[in-house]
Amino acid sequence: MRSTYINLILFAFFIMFFCLDLYTPLGIADGMLYITAIPLLLFFSDSRFIIITSILAIFLIILGFFLSPSNPNILIADVAFINRLFALFGVLFCSLMILKINHKQNQIIKLNNNLEEKVKLRTAKLTELLAKETELNEMKSNFISMASHELRTPLAAINSSASIIEMYNANEKDEKLIKHINRIYSNVKNLSDILNNFLSLGKIESGKITIGHSLINLPEFINEVVDELDVLANKKNQRIIYKHRGDLVIDNSDELLRNILINLISNAIKYSQENTEIIVTSFIENKNVTLTVQDHGIGIPEKDQSKLFTPFFRASNTKSIQGTGIGLNIVKQYLEMMNGQISFESKNNEGATFNIEFPQYLILSSEI
């Protein structure tokens, strides 16, 4: 609004000096005409004012050509006449230049408005797609959770029935029956592990995992996990070797750490040949924990390594081995919750070494 008032005042002065210039000899009116014309053109945001200014300047130029320079009532001398014409040409040139600038500026504003409109439309579309994806993920997580819980009941019944059969056969010791019972136990455990992984993935995606932390004697904790997994390793005549260096106690999530260790060591057992060693090491230094799980198994082909932590991805050399491809993804997400990270080194048919690092003392964002 203020710029409009300034434009009107300057335009009024310009008209006044324009009229004076028509009826007075060369003098103050000429100078004021050009002095007001230039800021008038510079400040005008409305092209209509600039067009009128240009028309008036052209009118003065045309009028000047028809007036005689020798008439003292109109012009003092030829030199003054030429000066006036050049000055009016200057006003006209400025008018045209500013008109062109205004035209370009209007184009830029229009283009900017179009871009803003497109951004709004695309943002609205992306928001809608994100809402749909979130809804689908929630439905998937709910289904996984429901299916996992529903399948636990028949699995428990199968396991219980196998135990009863084993108990009735305790005296007879039928080797074939024992073999089948052990197969039932093994398959029930495999299916339970798969369900646990799916359930964990569902909890992660739905954000339903609550993280607690407590003091843990790390060597004792890892030895417990190793003893639990020795049963699997013994079936393939494998040996798990564990070594520790540094401090003993950490303050972290025992539940997440247990799941991470079970996943990594189980993978090492699963993907290693018989009669091999699996080496587990832990090291605490400078309030940082480093755990390493090394095997001498089939390794990971180089072409598959970049996708290893993608959900449901399995390396090309594991097709004949049971698995879901979500274990390592869960490990990675659990470590991120613990403010940690995972890395690995591997070559095809030369085994793999997984390294995980996390703080010795976990500090949750809610505790800061």
* Estimated share of beta-strand residues: 5-15%
Number of domains: 2
Query: Compute the gyration radius: what is it?
Result: 42 Å
Q: Categorize the overall geometry.
A: elongated
What series of H and E elements makes up the topology?
A: HHHHHEHEEHEEHEE
* Total helical segments: 8
Strand order of the largest sheet: 2-4-5-7-6
- The helix fraction, in percent, is 55-70%
Report the span from N to C terminus.
Answer: 51 Å
CATH architecture of the largest domain: 2-Layer Sandwich
Major β-sheet profile: 5 strands, mixed
CATH homologous superfamily identity of the largest domain: Histidine kinase-like ATPase, C-terminal domain
Describe the structure in your own words.
By secondary structure, the protein is of the alpha+beta class. The protein folds into 2 domains: 2-116; 214-367, Histidine kinase-like ATPase, C-terminal domain (Heat Shock Protein 90), CATH 3.30.565. The chain contains 8 helices and 7 strands; from the N terminus they run αααααβαββαββαββ. The protein has helices at 2-23, 28-43, 47-66, 78-168, 175-206, 218-235, 254-270, 327-337; strands spanning 214-217, 239-246, 249-252, 277-285, 288-294, 341-346, 352-359. Strands 2-4-5-7-6 form a 5-stranded mixed sheet, with helices on one face. α1 (2-23) runs antiparallel to α2, α3 packs antiparallel against α4 and α6 runs parallel beside α7. The model is unreliable at 25-29 and 68-79 (pLDDT under 50).
